[in-house]
Amino acid sequence: MPKVLISDKMDPLAAQIFRNRGIEVDEITGKTKDELIAMIGKYDGLAIRSATKVTKDVLAAATNLKVVGRAGIGVDNVDIPAASAKGVVVMNTPFGNSITTAEHAIALMFALARDLPEADKSTQAGKWEKNRFMGVEVTNKTLGLIGAGNIGSIVADRAIGLKMKVAAYDPFLTPERAVEMGVEKVTLEELLARADFITLHTPLTDSTRNILSKENLAKTKKGVRIVNCARGGLIDEAALKEALDSGHVAGAALDVFVTEPATESPLFGTPGFISTPHLGASTNEAQVNVAIQVAEQMADFLLSGGVTNALNMPSLSADEAPKLKPYMALAEHLGGLVGQLEGDAIKGVAIEVEGAAAELNQKPITGAVLAGLMRVYSDTVNMVNAPFLAKERGLDLREVRHDREGDYSTLVRVTVTTPEGAKSVAGTLFANAEPRLVEIFGVKVEADLTGEMLYIVNVDAPGFIGRLGSTLGEAGVNIGTFHLGRRSAGGEAVLLLSVDTPVDDALKAKIAQLPGVKSAKALRF
Ligand SMILES: NC(=O)c1ccc[n+]([C@@H]2O[C@H](COP(=O)([O-])OP(=O)(O)OC[C@H]3O[C@@H](n4cnc5c(N)ncnc54)[C@H](O)[C@@H]3O)[C@@H](O)[C@H]2O)c1
Ligand SMILES: O=C(O)[C@H](O)COP(=O)(O)O
Hints:
Bound molecules: nicotinamide-adenine-dinucleotide, 3-phosphoglyceric acid
CATH topology of the largest domain: Rossmann fold
Domain D-3-phosphoglycerate dehydrogenase ASB: 323-440
Function: Catalyzes the reversible oxidation of 3-phospho-D-glycerate to 3-phosphonooxypyruvate, the first step of the phosphorylated L-serine biosynthesis pathway. Also catalyzes the reversible oxidation of 2-hydroxyglutarate to 2-oxoglutarate.
Strand content: 15-25%
Number of helices: 17
Number of domains: 4
GO molecular function, one term: phosphoglycerate dehydrogenase activity
Radius of gyration: 30 Å
Shape: elongated
Catalytic activity: (2R)-3-phosphoglycerate + NAD(+) = 3-phosphooxypyruvate + NADH + H(+); (R)-2-hydroxyglutarate + NAD(+) = 2-oxoglutarate + NADH + H(+)
Pfam family, one: PGDH_inter
Strand order of the largest sheet: 8-7-6-9-10-11-12
Low-confidence stretches: none
């Protein structure tokens, strides 16, 4: 039974879903990095929000971990390259808290427009300072939207409902989408110059870090009010403090900070400054949404291999997963076969599908071929890290889908490019379930690829099989299955044997010396 750790505060529905689906779950929150490292080894899944930092060290200690599920959007607390290298799937719930976060941005915009926190404080202190608080309307004002993705577009929709004009800067926003959203697509310079309010909705990347830098803050309209419900680091906090102090920026509301938890900041106490402790996603509705989604997604993956919303692997629906499972076994075997036979000589891989296989999602088949192929180099290779490792090795990858139907109703072919030329193996499924090798380097065979095997290339001649059988028998190696193929009578033949015990180097050398043997290689599947 798979085991999941929920390491951040999450709606109880997440644990309930795991249990209902037969997954053991521990809810242990607030642990230090070292405590997490000490306990992570026994879990197959880790469900988190933004507090748990899934660092390289945590991943190194996570010997059983298969999936990290983020109940939320931002995954900057997960070292995704390290997770990918280790073969751990990282998934998030990209829409579950979008409305809630957009509403928080709008709430903060209103809080800034009317100085609500200060007015509340003063009133509750018994001061009744009616003349101190003079706000601004949002109607007819320009909202500068930096980032027009899921949350940004909801903010735009709400702002338009409030009769604001929305000017959006997002290099990936198409003119058609801008029209659909009812926003004006502008450059960052235009936005800075024109916006009465600015709201940020981008991830933190190299291109967005300090997008509101000292220089860009200076380009904003005097009296601008700024909201950040996206990520700390989008605004230069020291420059913001200066701009608030000088009065150039009339107000700023931050839900997110460069360092979190933000228990101290030069911004605290600055007039016009409002803060919330990363509450963007904190509503009952959003937390129920993300808890249900993350638990269902992780359970699908752990129980059936379905992949939804993964950041380091192609999607594979829970419906597709059972159909693809035998193909992935076939693909992994074909990859394993060429990997073991050609190893370092492989410079490129082409994966072709035809017949029934061509109607399926090809990405998981490709991932499985690469996993089989790269396993020659490490036992820890899987579908997540194989494409990454293949890229690192500079393998040239090609995927081809054929409409034609050949000799088999379904076929997967793997062709590797080597200095000796292209070499190809192909396999099919019997009864839609049983992987079978049907061609190896141009020779037709029909073989299972399973357990310990021996691959022999020899000259087709009478008496060879008897001599081989005797050699194996004398060494106490029992033959399980025996598959033979040849290019022509008396020409080159290939033999694939499954054996009950591994063939050691000494026995392999003995076989290689039998008359007519061109090569002998032990394989393992
Ligand atoms: N405060 C919170 O609690 C909270 C809650 C949810 C999400 N978030 C954060 O909000 C942010 C936005 O989330 P989303 O779901 O809308 O993401 P999204 O991926 O749907 O949208 C991000 C948008 O940013 C745009 N973008 C990327 N680089 C840009 C650049 N250099 N300049 C301008 N735009 C750029 C992208 O094109 C995209 O449209 C994320 O960082 C997420 O982590 C915060
Ligand atoms: O990216 C997100 O989803 C938000 O930052 C929410 O973070 P939280 O789950 O820690 O509230």
